[in-house]
What does this fold into?
Amino acid sequence: MDYYVHTRYSRWHRLRVQAAGAIVIPLLPYVARLVSVWDTPLSLAGGADSVSVLHLTFVLSLGSVLAGTMIMRSMARYPGVEGSASILPAFSATFGTVLLFLVMGRIEYNRFVLASSYFLALLWFYFIHFKEQRRGLRIGIISHATLDPAFIGVRRVVPVMLENPDSDVSGLDAIAVDLRVDLPPEWERRLADYALAGLQVLHLKHLVESLTGRVELEHLSETSYGTLSPSSFYLVLKMWGDWIAAAAALAIMSPALILIALMIRVDSPGPAIFRQTRIGYRGKPFTVYKFRTMTDAGSQGEHRTAAMTRDNDARVTKLGRALRQTRIDELPQLVNVLRGEMSWIGPRPEAAVLSRWYESEIPFYRYRHIVRPGITGWAQVSQGHVAEIADVTSKLHYDFYYIKNFSPWLDLLIVARTIRTMATGFGAR
It folds into this structure.
């Protein structure tokens, strides 16, 4: 049966709108530079600012943006986190290829036009992504699917139950179905019809993961790529990048860190640095360092209740509260990064006493130790600080999402959200 399905894609999602923006993006720096060249004496308008070089750079930038748009659209099949994660790699790949071609060929190009086109492309498509996320999604759910409670709780998502293959699907953004179960033949034929008509058919569990940024492991086989271990290449690359960045950060911030330590000593009695045994990479205990933020460092010790930080905890000092809200109290952990015990980004390490408790209560909890713990992480920027079992289980689903999608692109997204968290104090206690 051939028919056309009318979907609810907004104007921001349409290819012609995105392509129009892609054409304007390199045009703006090109025109700006061209005007400055016309105002320059001909004797000075040579080299990278010559008109012919500007023309070539504009054409290559335009091609990079258009190619990046197509790659991004092919990668961003799911709304939510995965949609934003495809933007940076798509345009980095196309512009990086062009830059490599120019450098290897020793071809003159205008750096301002090329660099401006790249950053404007990122800004434009992130703007489109966030405009899309503010629009409500109508997702069709076939009656054979078990509806995940997490899916019902997603803001701006309206699930529409499809009771039979003849249900009206006009006005839907996508169809979500559990592709792991055996469906009746009439539903399998109809799903093929939906796909042929241009309506996306998505795996329900994968869709929930992308919309919520969480992975609820029911079986360890649901991790990624049929293996429990993330990419060993990126693990090594990340470790060396973390070490270099931590060494540079400590060299630059040492005066400020010393000043903060002196302020803590003046503000309340006790040491400036708080030490605690936590569980790290591959389940090995290590000593973590933080700026002390409580009046009694001993009360943050080895007892389960003492190791938890409650809302409006009376032990937190006035200066400590400010350090916690901005996450500055975590900066001494740069020493842990230099020692190879931690990373800049990863699941937060828990106190040993809490970790033992969680392991006894929560299945798969130890799996979060498969990557190095981080100063900041996906769970921290998505949920904030928690301690109770129910909340920790929810937080663990964010950690599993990070491990399953372990990549530099997700790390960059976490960096951006960490900056927002430091500015707003989200999730601090």
Notes: The chain has a mean pLDDT of 81. Strands lie at 137-142, 157-162, 174-177, 200-203, 273-279, 285-291, 343-345, 374-376. The first strand starts at residue 137 and ends at 142. The first helix runs from residue 15 to 38.
